[in-house]
Amino acid sequence: MDTKKVQFSFFISLFLLVLVLTGRLFLPFLASIAIAFMVAVTFRPVYRWFLKLFGKQRGLASVVTIFFICIVVFLPLTFLVERLASESYNLYFDIRERGLGDLDRLTYYFIHPVQQFFPSFDPDIAGYVQSLIATFVDNLGTIFSQTASFVVQFVLGIISLFYILKDGHIFRKILVRLSPLSDRYDVEIISKLESAVTSVVRGSLLTALVQGCFASIGFYLFGIGHVILWGSIVAVAALLPGLGTGLVIIPAVLYLLTIGLTGQAIGLAIWGIIAVGLVDNILMPLFVGKRSKIHPLFILFSVIGGMILFGVSGIFLGPLIIALFFALLDIYQLLILDDQNKRLTSI
Description:
The chain is an all-alpha fold. It has 2 domains: 30-112 and 119-178, no CATH class; 181-347, no CATH class. Helices cover 84% and strands 0% of the residues. It is built from 14 helices and no strands. It has helices spanning 3-26, 30-42, 44-53, 58-98, 103-117, 125-145, 147-178, 183-221, 227-237, 246-258, 262-276, 279-288, 296-310, 314-346. Helix 2 (30-42) packs across helix 7 (147-178). The chain is elongated, with a radius of gyration of 25 Å. The protein starts with a helix and ends with a helix. Its main location: membrane. Pfam families: AI-2E_transport (PF01594).
């Protein structure tokens, strides 16, 4: 019996066992770590600025960066979620008690022509909307009922963010050293992953969020209620290529026309075209620059699929997975396709 083979087989078996157990240990915290990674990559320019300001003191720069992120991101996000929950509850009970109200006129203009050809066509729009909002409200209730779990995940995410900012360069060296690929490809993978994450977060998610904010301002100025709720829906629709924001703003304009507010309808239409529609063309190059861009359709499906698979954290995990996929796709082109082309040209 070959002793070396036995030792090697035993080591591989033991290593795989420990690897599986380690994976199971970290699995409950995967979302916190992944989100911390995305936040660290997104706010790396801020961290580097503080690092330069504090004379290369990585720990201090990391702490100040986290405080900056909490003030700029987490506090407004907390307010947004609270208002979103409140407006969703209010709209749900309004529809349950009074129906769609003025929206019944708008739906009539769409449904009545169809009923001329199909008399049995009589969709319960109020019921559909009420059911949709009820499902959303129930999910919000589930989120708030898991407060203790959320607090734990949040604290672990902050701790992960601190060490990713502070020791990210060390983690990068470890990954490059342990990877069986050439160091050149390892660095390329990490670089493209970071570039893809930046493209997703700054280019798509942040741009969509800004469009939602501008839409909320427009709804407020021109008399549309529940501005946070509808602005949030615009932000999600903005992930759709082309006329995503129009899917919400156009019905809002038609609603204002239906109830006789022609001037406000025209104002909202102009606001939607200029303030909301052009944001994408202005902010996308500013946030992303010359980095690789991922098509908004992939971002949309990654967000929805991520939420189905991972819950609320899937909003971040889905885009992270799709970013990793496109990063590996670029490496596949470099590693395999380019090598095949070189072989073909040498024949």
